[in-house]
Each structure stands twice: as structure tokens, then as C-alpha cells.
Specification:
With about 170 residues, this protein is mostly helical. About 65% of the residues lie in helices and about 5% in strands. The protein contains 7 helices and 2 strands; from the N terminus they run ααααββααα. It has helices spanning about 1-20, 30-40, 45-65, 70-85, 100-125, 135-150, 155-160; strands spanning about 90-95, 100. It is globular, with a radius of gyration of 17 Å. The model has no long low-confidence stretch (mean pLDDT about 95).
């Protein structure tokens, strides 16, 4: 649970880290969905290595939560909020995978926070409506964009409209 909470919290700390660094000099990704789609299109070995690195960073982030995880995460959120106040959404940030506009990068972080927020709610027996509907809607928009850019749009549309169930192994990420 701590590792999952730490991993989710990295959606905040990476924003602060990237804003503290020099801006990217070129835009690698035009949009959040293309950022995720590029990862999904990477070679199997690259994805496995990236997944392992994410897991290790999640372990460390879980430790970084300290003795008061709620206070720590609130501190991270306050730090990000303060850092964002002075930044234009078109500022380029240098992510691990390439440069992109801050506004689009924030869509990827919201996606992570909402999805893992739902994971945490499910694991702790909390109601799923603990995540604001506006956050869920923004994530659904991004999920549809990811599905479209990865060739899974038709499958998702048919499932969302009740025409066909999702295949058992269907996953966008």
C-alpha cells in the first residue's frame, strides 16, 4: 500500500522536479496521449526495463512518505501548486522520455493520480466516488485519445456503447 501511495505521489514530485530543472529545448511529444502511445510502442525489453525502474522509484517514494504519509503528500501538493503558479502551460518540460508542454505533461500526471487514487480507494475499501468526477472525465478523455492513437479506439468504443465486451486482456497501459 505504501509503495502504491508513494508511486501515486510521484505524479506530484515529478512535476516539481521537472519545473525546477531547465526547460526542454525541443518538443518530442505534442500531446499526453502521444507520450503514452510512444511508451506503448517501445520495444518489449525497453518497456520491461522502464516498468522495473518505475517499480523501484515507487519503493523509494513509499519510503519517502515517512511517518506521516498524508502530511507528506499534502506538502508535495503544496510545493507543486506553488511551482505551477508562475509557469505558463506551454512551457516545455524535459521528461525522462522527451520534451513536452507543461499542460500536456500535467494531463499525464492527473491520469496517474486518478487511476492510482482509484487503486488506493479500492484497496482500502473507500468509495470510488472519492475521486472527483471532473478528474475521472479528464482521464476518460485521455484514455480515449490513447486508445485511438494505439489502434484500440474501435474496441473501446464498442465496449463503451455496450455492443461488445472488452477482451479479457484489454489494457491501455
Amino acid at each position: 500500500m505504501r509503495q502504491l501511495a508513494g508511486h501515486a505521489g510521484r505524479a506530484l514530485t515529478t512535476v516539481a522536479d521537472y519545473l525546477a530543472a531547465e526547460p526542454a529545448t525541443e518538443k518530442t511529444y505534442e500531446s499526453a496521449d502521444r507520450y503514452f502511445a510512444a511508451f506503448l510502442a517501445s520495444q518489449e525489453g525497453e518497456r520491461a526495463a522502464a516498468d522495473e525502474a518505475v517499480a523501484q522509484r515507487g519503493v523509494q517514494a513509499g519510503l519517502d512518505l515517512g511517518d506521516s504519509p498524508v502530511t507528506t503528500v499534502r506538502g508535495w501538493a503544496d510545493e507543486v501548486y506553488a511551482a505551477l503558479k508562475s509557469q505558463p502551460l506551454d512551457r516545455l518540460v524535459a521528461t525522462r522520455f522527451g520534451g513536452m508542454a507543461l499542460g500536456e505533461y500535467l494531463r499525464t500526471r492527473l491520469f496517474e493520480l486518478v487511476v492510482h487514487g482509484l487503486d488506493l480507494a479500492r484497496a482500502t475499501g473507500q468509495p470510488l466516488d472519492i475521486v472527483p468526477a471532473s478528474g475521472v472525465a479528464a482521464c476518460l478523455d485521455l484514455a480515449v485519445d490513447i486508445a485511438t492513437h494505439t489502434g484500440q479506439g474501435t474496441t473501446l468504443l464498442l465496449a463503451l456503447t455496450g455492443r461488445e465486451p472488452l477482451p479479457p486482456t484489454f489494457a491501455l497501459l
